[in-house]
Specification:
Shape: globular
Strand content: 5-15%
Number of strands: 7
Largest sheet: 4 strands, antiparallel
Helix content: 40-55%
C-alpha cells in the first residue's frame, strides 16, 4: 500500500503536541522522559518503532550510542555519547550508563520528527540531564509580580515549557538557536503550512532575537524567505 504520509505531515502533527504535563526538570534543564515521549508518539503513530545500532567505541574508552526511529516509512537517525553530569564522555561506562544514554538518545531521535523539539530548542545541549531518580515535575508557575513602575513580565507560554529560554541568550546562544532553526527549515519543513506553524510557534523568541541580535535574525529571515520562495516557485510550476 502506498504511503501518503510525508515527513512534513509528521512534523506538522508532532511539533504542536503539548509536552508540559509530561516534561521534567533537573538541574535547571527541562527534558522529556523516554516513557512519556514514547506514549505521546504512540498516541499519533502507534506503528512507529525504533532500534539501536552497534555501540561506537572510541580510543579513549568512551562510547557513542546510535538510534534510529521509523514513522510511517520515514526514518531518522541520531547519536549521543555516554556522558557524566558534567557533559564529559565516560571512559568504560557501566551498563547502567549505557542503558540510560540509549533512552535519552531515543528521545532525541523522536524529537527530530518534531515531538518535544521545542524543548530541545531551549537548550544548547538539551540531552544533558542526569540521575532520573531525582527528577522533578515541571510546574507551571504564574509570572512573578513586579512593581507597577517596571515593565511587566512577558506573558508565559500556554504550556509553561520553554520558560522564556531566549531571554538568557548571548550572541553565541542566539547563533546556536538560529542555526538549529535554519537546519530544521531547510531539512524538515515541507509545506507552507509547516513553515508558518514553525514561525508562529517561535514568534516570541524570533522577536527577541530580532531586537537583540539583528545579525542572527537576518540569517534566519533569509532562510525563511528562501524556503517560502521555494514553495511559491513549486506552486507556480504546478499551475
Amino acid at each position: 500500500m502506498e504511503n501518503n504520509v510525508s515527513l512534513g505531515d509528521i512534523w506538522e502533527t508532532l511539533y504542536p503536541v503539548k509536552c508540559g504535563d509530561a516534561a521534567k526538570k533537573k538541574n535547571g534543564l527541562t527534558y522529556l522522559p523516554w516513557n512519556e515521549a514514547w506514549r505521546l508518539l504512540m498516541n499519533h503513530y502507534p506503528t512507529a518503532h525504533f532500534e539501536f545500532g552497534e555501540i561506537e567505541m572510541h580510543s579513549d574508552g568512551s562510547q557513542t550510542i546510535h538510534c534510529t526511529v521509523a514513522i510511517e516509512g520515514h526514518a531518522r537517525h541520531m547519536w549521543l555519547p555516554v556522558m557524566n553530569y558534567k557533559n564529559q564522555a565516560i571512559a568504560n561506562p557501566s551498563a547502567r550508563d549505557v542503558s540510560d544514554t540509549k533512552m535519552r538518545c531515543l528521545v532525541k531521535t523522536i524529537a527530530m520528527f518534531g515531538l518535544g523539539f521545542h524543548i530541545f530548542q531551549g537548550q544548547v545541549q538539551p540531552e544533558d540531564t542526569w540521575d532520573d531518580v531525582t527528577e522533578e515535575a515541571v510546574e507551571e508557575k504564574p509570572p512573578a509580580k513586579k512593581p507597577a513602575a517596571k515593565k511587566p513580565d512577558p506573558e508565559p507560554e500556554a504550556d509553561g515549557e520553554e520558560e522564556e529560554f531566549y531571554l538568557s541568550f548571548d550572541t553565541e546562544g542566539a547563533d546556536v538557536w538560529v542555526d538549529m532553526m535554519i537546519s530544521t527549515v531547510e531539512g524538515m519543513v515541507e509545506t507552507k503550512k509547516g513553515l508558518r506553524s514553525m514561525w508562529e510557534a517561535n514568534k516570541k523568541a524570533v522577536d527577541h532575537i530580532q531586537a537583540k541580535f539583528p545579525e542572527s535574525y537576518s540569517r534566519l529571515a533569509a532562510a525563511m524567505k528562501a524556503k517560502q520562495d521555494e514553495f511559491n516557485n513549486k506552486d507556480k510550476a504546478n499551475d
